[in-house]
Structures are given as C-alpha cells and as structure tokens.
Amino acid sequence: MTEQDDENNLVDEPTLSSSETINDEHSINKEMNRRLFVNLLTGSAVAISGLLSLKWILSSKNDEIPSLLRKNHDFNANLSKAYFKPDRLAPTFSENLIADPRANGDLGLKDDFAPNDWLLHLYGNNTHKIFTLNNLKKLPIIEMTTELKCIEGWSQIVKWKGVRLFDFLLKNQMLSNNPKYVSMETPDKEYYVGLDIESAIHPQTLLAFEMNNKPLTLEHGAPLRLVTPLKYGIKHIKRIGSITVTDNKPKDYWAEQGYDWYSGH
Amino acid sequence: MKIIKKHHTVIRWNHWINFPILASMIWSGMLIYWSNDVYKISLGNKVLFKFFPDWFYTTFNLSQRLAEGMAWHFFLMWLFAINGFVYVAYSLISGEWRYLVPHKHALKHAFAVVLHDLGINKNPLPERKFNAAQQITYTGIIIMGFFSLLTGLAIYKPIQLSWLTSFLGGYEAARLEHFILTMGYVAFFVIHISQVIRSGWNNVRSMITGYEVVNKDKKGYEYD
After folding, report:
1. A11: which chain B residues are within 8 Å (Cβ-Cβ)?
2. What is the reported pLDDT for A1?
3. Which of A6, A204, A242, B96 could form a disulfide with A121 if both were Cys (CB 3.0 to 4.6 A apart)?
4. Which of B3, B68, B157 is opposite residue A258, by nearest beta carbon?
C-alpha cells in the first residue's frame, strides 16, 4: 500500500488535478495487477506476522492461560484499581426482587462439618486471634440488597446480613500497617481467595451470616461467608475458616484455574 | 479507462485488521456466553430458536472454555478499541467521514437502492463512493462498534462504571444488548459479503489496492 508512486500519471487523485490519463487498457491492467500484488504481499506478510505472534503468545502459560493474557489481566486490574474509588457503591435494590441464588460450587465444603464448633482464625501483624460467630456479631450489623454476579454470566439480587470486613479488621488492629491484601481459606484449605485491600475494606464487603432473611445454609456457606458486590461470585468464599492480612499477593483458587486474579467490578 | 484513488490507506488497514479482531472477539465472546446461554427467540411458550443449539458448541469447540474466553476477550478488546479509534479519528481529520455519514435524503435514497438491488427498480443508481444504503449501514456499524464497547465496559466494570450500566438498563440488560450487537455483526457480515460479491471485482480490488478503474471522463469521488 505504497503512496509514493502516485506521482506517475496513471493515477487521478481525488483532488481532481488535471493529470494525464492513459487509455491503454493493457497498461491499466498491468498497473492494477502490480498494485494488487504489492498489497497482497504486504497483507500476507502482516497475516504471517500475526500468526507467528499468536504462536508466540500460546507458547508460554501462566496458571492455565497464555502468559501475555495473564499480564493483560493484571494490566487491566491495575487500570481498574487506579480508577477505583471507595465511595463508588454497588446499586442496591428493593427487597421484593430477592431470590435464592444457585449454590454453585462445593469446594471446601465437602468434609463433615459442625457449624457449632466453628471458629474463625485471624492472622496478621504477627498475631493470631480466634473468634466465634457471637464475637463477630458484636460489630455493627449491616443489611444490604445487592446483585450477586456470577462469573458464568448470570446474576441474582440477594439480601445479605453481616458485618463489614473493614470493621472487623479495624477493630483487631489489622489495618495499622497499610496491608496490601487479604487472604481467606476454608477450614480444610481446599478453597481460597485473595482480595486487594481496597476491595476488602469497601463498605459493601461483608462477612455475612444471613441470606434472604434466613441464616446461611451449609451449601451457601454457613456459618460465615464473604459477600462483596465488587467481585464476581467466585470471590464470595463460603465457610471461611481463616482470614490473613498480608503484603504478599495471596493465592486464589480460580486464578490458578485460568481466571483473572482481580475479578473486580 | 483510467485509475482513480478510492479508499485511503489508513482506512483500508483499519478495515482489514478489524476483520480478524472482530472475528476473534466474537469467538472469545462465544466461549464466555456458553456458560450462561440463556437467550432464545420464543413465540408464546414455543421456543423458535435457542442461542445456541448444542451442535453449534460442539462443531466450533466452544464448551468449557470460560477462563480462556475471558482472557482473550479482555485482551482483544484493546485491539478492537484502538483500531476503531484510529479509524474514527482518521475519518474525522481527513474529511473521509463526509462520504460515510448519511446525507439529508439518505433514507429515501436507501429505499431506492434496496428496490434496485432486489431487482424491482431497473433504473441505474447514481454513481457515488457509497450509496445511501451503504452510508446508513456503514455509519450504523461504527455506532454499533461504539455501543459494543460501552455495553462491554458496563458488564466488565458494573460498579466503577455503574452510571453507564444503569444508563444501559442495568447489568443484565447490558449483557443482552452486548449479545444483540454481536448478532448484528454476524447479520451485517452475511449481507456485506453477498453485496461485495455482487459489486464485482473492480470494487473488491479497490478495497485491497485503494484504486479503482473507471471511465476516462469520470472525476474523483466528491462528497455529497
């Protein structure tokens, strides 16, 4: 697609300059074939470079997806974090619209479990603290009706009741050193999620114990699960066994399966 | 006979680059859509068409690939957006947009074009770079591209961009709109290809080389 040879008189520019034209059909065909050849050659070269780039992209993987696409996820996440504001709230809805969401996923919920014996472990700042559900309920109780968005593409308006993760971390002096991340695991450590601190301390990020006006059922994560409309459902870990405040990017079950670590809205 | 310039280099690059990008966006979009493939066309209780039948997923190997689909989709979106912005910016700066944006009587003329193409009206159409039907379609497809970006962002970042998501009717509405736009590209593609084939080799070649062979007394293309 070269332009420099436009100066020869075969070509009329749209500027309507009074250039000579050639009547000879043979020369015109020859000239058009030349242009076609040059363009198809350039196009093929670009197409081949495209295919070679694709081959290169597919040649190295990072947690189930090509490394470049993993880097792109992280790049997008950084952009999203830069734009993030803690006072941007997820929309809330009328309670008339609520319904129970699909339970989707029983990872970390498989072993025999007695909710009454459950304890929550908190790690961070070189301390280890243990809580019962009643301990947690001494924090301000929050109710919110928000849209639970599954990474599969469906969503459901759900009413949640719980305490703010922010209040919990603050009350236990976990935020004094400006930590970067929060990690959570099920008691059997089969399921685990990582959260950036901005999402973790957002006012709509709850440690929830009720869903749609009823205590959580086991399949929905009794006795305590994470709820955050800032993330896809995959981050809403059920049956939280431990919470760790850390500066190291925590491992995340679904990120290891090829999903975006940030998965943030 | 003589050769005149028809399509600018930048625009030809945008056009051809867009094809593999949009095709890959649709492919990765299908990988995502598979995991919640709820859309269908129904008449009363009768389902006329389900998006998509099982054979479709099987034939194109689209099942169980959500993570891969998302990884590609949120990478390719950059290429799609950049290519689109370059196209729009170039059209505005070069003045090319004047050929493309429908003029005052475009609807009436477009109707004449449709009658002509269906063989109902035998009168020849006035010779222009883009006829009114093309102007409406091509301008429409650019606007659709812009709305694909908006609806896509509304689903991707529904809280940080909640103003956008609610403007588009909410999270689920934005997902449906994003899907309908995609089906629009597929419909456009079918019509575009058949029209391109009808238009003949000189026209197809002009999109590749930028130049068209015309009668000697023909001037360059003017805006109308």
Report:
1. 3-5, 211
2. 42
3. A242
4. B68
Domain B10-38+64-199 grouped into CATH 3.40.50.10190: no
Q: Tell me the nearest-neighbour CA distance from B165 into chain A, angstroms.
A: 10
Give per-residue pLDDT as tens, B84-106. Answer: 999 999 999 999 898 899 988 88
Sign of CA dihedral B77, B80, B83, B88: negative
Least Cα distance to A231 among B33, B159, B72, B32 occurs for B159
Tell me which amino acid residue A58 is.
L
**Interatomic CA distance for residues A201 and A182, integer angstroms:** 9
CATH number for region A61-256: 3.90.420.10
Q: Locate A108 and state its tokens.
A: 């970390």
The confidence score (pLDDT) of residue B223 equals 58
Report d(CA A83, CA B160) in Å as an integer. Answer: 8
Percent of chain A whose pLDDT exceeds 90: 86
Element (H, E) at A56: helix A25-59
Pairing relationship of beta strands A141-149 and A127-131 according to DSSP bridges:
unpaired
Mutate to test the interface with A, among B15, B75, B203 (most CBs of A within 10 A): B75
What is the pLDDT averaged over residues A210-231?
97
> DSSP states of B94-153 as a string?
HSTHHHHS--TTHHHHHHHHHHHHTTS--SPPPP-SS-HHHHHHHHHHHHHHHHHHHHHH
Residue A14 pLDDT exceeds 60 = no
